[in-house]
Amino acid sequence: MIRRVGIVAKHGLVAASEHVARLGPWLSERGIDVVYERETLALTGAIGEHVRTATRDALPCEADLIVVLGGDGTLLAMAARIAKADRDIPILGVNFGSLGFLTEIRIDELMPSLESTLSGSAAFEERAMLEAEAYRNEARVDSRVVLNDVVFTKGALSRMIELSVSVSGGFVTRVKADGLIVASATGSTAYNLAAGGPIVHPGVDALVLTPIAPHTLTNRPVVIPGHADVEVRPHIGDGADDVFVTYDGQSGYTLHEGDVVRVRKSERVLRLVKASTRGYFEVLREKLKWGER
């Protein structure tokens, strides 16, 4: 039962202001409490003692459903916050501009989609997430859950990086490349796609390993079982070969020699409100312009 809805928009998205302004009263008329992300409310210029607000980090703990207005990046950031808050609440993602792979609901579909979600007739899609843990001197120094990918890349001065990759305890290869992407099926249409990796339907239980500009052309993307554990160890050279790990393109840090990052499918899933007017392949056709000359 949805009793409270959180509203968050992309930072500085002025185009969302009128939609944010009318969402509150529309929800209140239906007996739904509204919680605005603070910067999102500021877009409307509204200030009031009786308006409930929360930070982006706190919003998942204050709502039963979160409406995201923006793009896939805004949704990814909120998905990570929902996982960190240990909540199981759905996201209704509304895209501003071109259709998103994740924010697939258009602006003109916002109210009908929200109406069906509140009435219980909306369809939800569950997306598998990734769990990543970083170890230094055998001690865990970081742990997080992401939706799309864990990416290992070189620093600005690095010519190439080297990474040892193992899957479920078995050594796979020592990658020499500009980087390596460990992607979920959902993340296969993100950085993985730009790097030449395969598109994997989100319903497939799989992970993808995609080298970025590999030194050896025979190093190709590999699709592995979703239950596999991936272990990546950086090999740091003379100090110029910095290796960075980033999570969903949102945040990251530098790795050191001897560090280990382990990636596996999380027990968590993200629930997305599905667009009622189109399916996955229609989104692909529109985004990738299939069939157009």
Overview of this protein structure:
This protein has 293 residues and is an alpha+beta fold. The protein folds into two domains: 4-123 and 274-288, 3-Layer(aba) Sandwich (Rossmann fold); 129-267, Sandwich (Tumour Suppressor Smad4). The chain contains six helices and 17 strands. The strands form three sheets. Strands 7-6-17-14-9-10 form a six-stranded antiparallel sheet. β6 (124-136) and β7 (139-146) form a beta hairpin. α1 (17-29) packs across α2 (38-44). The longest helix is centred in the first third of the chain and has 13 residues, at 17-29. The chain is globular, with a radius of gyration of 20 Å. The termini are far apart.
The CATH architecture category of the largest domain equals Sandwich
Q: Which value, in Å, is the CA radius of gyration?
A: 20 Å
The CATH superfamily of the largest domain turns out to be Probable inorganic polyphosphate/atp-NAD kinase, domain 2
Estimate what percentage of residues fall within beta strands.
35-45%
Number of helices: 6
User: How helix-rich are the residues, as a percent range?
Assistant: 10-25%
What's the layout of helices and strands?
Elements: E1 4-9, H1 17-29, E2 33-37, H2 38-44, E3 52-54, E4 65-70, H3 72-84, E5 91-95, H4 110-119, E6 124-136, E7 139-146, E8 149-154, E9 161-167, E10 170-177, E11 179-184, H5 191-194, E12 206-212, E13 222-225, E14 230-235, E15 243-247, E16 251-255, E17 260-273, H6 280-288
Parallel strand pairs: 1-2, 1-4, 2-3, 4-5
Antiparallel strand pairs: 6-7, 6-17, 8-11, 8-15, 9-10, 9-14, 11-12, 12-13, 14-17, 15-16
Helix pairs in contact: 1-2
